[in-house]
Each structure stands twice: as C-alpha cells, then as structure tokens.
Amino acid sequence: MKVAIVILNWNGKKLLEQFLPFVIEHSKEAAIYVADNASTDDSVNYIKTTFPTITIVQNKENGGYAKGYNDALKNIEADVFCLLNSDVEVTPNWLTPVIKTFKTQDSTAIIQPKILDYHNKMYFEYAGAAGGFIDKYAYPYCRGRIFNTLEKDQGQYNDTSEIFWASGACLFIRAKLFRALNGFDESFFAHMEEIDLCWRAKNNGYHIKYVGASTVYHVGGATLKNTNPKKTFLNFRNSLFTLTKNANGFILGKVFIRLILDGIAALKFLLEFKPKHTLAILKAHFSYYSHLNRLLNQRKVLKSKIKYYQRASIVFDYFVNKKTNYKSL
C-alpha cells in the first residue's frame, strides 16, 4: 500500500523546522510531500536545502486548505493520502495501525488517529480529539471534546471505532475516494471542509474510522486562532454550507432552527464584549444566503442522504443538561 503524507504549507517555515523532522523520522513507510500554497517566506528554499528527499508541490496561489489540497493531490500518486497539518507532531509507529486497518477493512475509506494537545499532552485536542460527530443542526462535537471542554486522555478512547467525521488536522483517505468525490468543496476555503467531505463519503456508503492505537499531537490555531473573528465566520458559515448540501429531511426547517441558535450565540458573544465575533456570525449568515441557490443545486445531485446524527441538539445537551463529556451523552 503506497501512502503519501501531504503537508500543506503557507508561510510556515517555523512550523516545518519544528515538526517536519518528526514526520521524517517516524514515517519510513510513506512518501512525504509538502504542498506549498504560494508562500512568500523562505519555506520552500528551507525544505530544498535541509530536506532534499522531500518532494515539493508548488501551488500557484493560496487557495486555502480546500483548494490547496485539491490542486496538490492532482500531482501525487498513492493508494492513501494522509493530509497532515504542519503543526502536528507524529509519534513512533503512528502509521502502522492505520495501514493495517486499511488493509484489513476494505469498506473503511477514511481514518483519523487519536489527536492530543501538543501543549498539554494528557488532554485531547480541540480539532478532532477521538473522532467527530454532528448533531441534527450540524454543530460538531467529538469523543473527547464538546465545545470548549476537553477530556483528559485516560485510555477511554483507545479503541477502533466508527465515527462520522475525521479531523483535517490528520486525515487519511483512500485516493480513489478522494477523486471520486471531486475532493474538497473549494467554496469553504478553510474550516469544516473535512466534515463536508466525510458527510459526502457517508452518503455514498463509505465507513470512517477512528484508530486509537495511532497518536499525534496537534498545536491547533497555528493558522487562525479561536480568538480570530475570521475563524468564527468560517465555522458558522461553513457549518450551514455542509448542512444544506448533505442533510436528509426538510432542510429549510433545520436552517430556521440554526438561525435561532446562531442568533443566541451572537448575543452571547456580545454579552462577553466580543462584538467582532457577533458581527462575524451575522456576516456568516449573509454569506450563506448569497450561496443558497448553489447549495440547493449541490444538494439535488446527491444520490442518497443518510440519517447523520446521534443527538438532536448538542447545544441543549451541553448548555442546558450540562453534559460536558461524550460518555455522558
């Protein structure tokens, strides 16, 4: 099985200096690529001079996460792509259980390892933790992380388990499926495009697994921090994008409920003296409505739409019923 580890880079020389040596040391079973999104720093020259065995794929523009990977993967031949953030520290033998799962489970098309917090290695990391799910209204949550509450890793998720979405921080996907799905939806630019990709895979009958025997450590927020209103904008807008495209049932009713819930979130930000985030949510909705016709057309071409949620409202579970860890749900 030919595995290609593809690290998307944009002006990330410091991250490459810090984390690329670990990838090289612990990934003998794979070919390593850096897909550069038209960086203006010294990233490309640094890789060429320091790691000449690494293949660089140079994109013509910074198209964000979605277009960046779509453009780069057209130039890479492999059986499995590993899309790895540049701010991830991998560990010894991290590839072995993932490759074994792909080899022994033909129906498994996407895999995520255990993702722990680089700065606090006893705890799960926000972006993926032990595998992702969404509620009826497309609010994401994870085993090991619900909203901003992170669980301590005590071995409770050392299993191999079916999940709904795998984190884009470290996502393994069979190359044939990535191409069959036409890759990421480039209108997302960044954030939640992996949930959309996974949802489309699920709607086409594929399985997504979390493999807890493989561990990586993620810094998180290296490109956009949680305090950045642009991240708020992208998360709220793109969540609506993927809900509209992929959910079964009466979609406009779900969007109406989202309008109410997002309005409450915007008010919460305002009361916390974060008006820029309130404005970001408003902008997210206006942007969503401007794309609605396209999204409804994308929705029409889906062959099937499965039931996608375990919880009706993770918002209600967390904020009202005070269920702050996955096993309490």
Please write out the topology.
Blueprint: E1 3-9, H1 13-25, E2 30-36, H2 43-50, E3 55-58, H3 64-73, E4 80-84, E5 88-90, H4 96-104, E6 108-117, E7 120-124, E8 132-134, E9 140-142, E10 145-146, E11 149-150, E12 160-162, E13 170-174, H5 175-180, H6 193-203, E14 207-218, H7 229-246, H8 251-271, H9 275-290, H10 292-300, H11 314-319
Parallel strand pairs: 1-2, 1-4, 2-3, 6-14
Antiparallel strand pairs: 4-13, 5-14, 6-7, 6-13, 8-9, 10-11, 12-14
What are the segments in which pLDDT stays under 50 over at least 5 consecutive residues? none
Total number of helices:
11
Helix/strand-derived class? alpha/beta
Structural domain tally: 2
Euclidean distance between termini CA atoms: 38 Å
Question: Radius of gyration from the CA trace?
Answer: 19 Å
Q: Which geometry do the CA atoms define?
A: globular
Strand content: 15-25%
CATH-level-2 architecture of the largest domain: Alpha-Beta Complex
CATH class category name of the largest domain: Alpha Beta
The name CATH uses for the topology of the largest domain is Spore Coat Polysaccharide Biosynthesis Protein SpsA, Chain A
The CATH homologous superfamily of the largest domain is named: Spore Coat Polysaccharide Biosynthesis Protein SpsA, Chain A
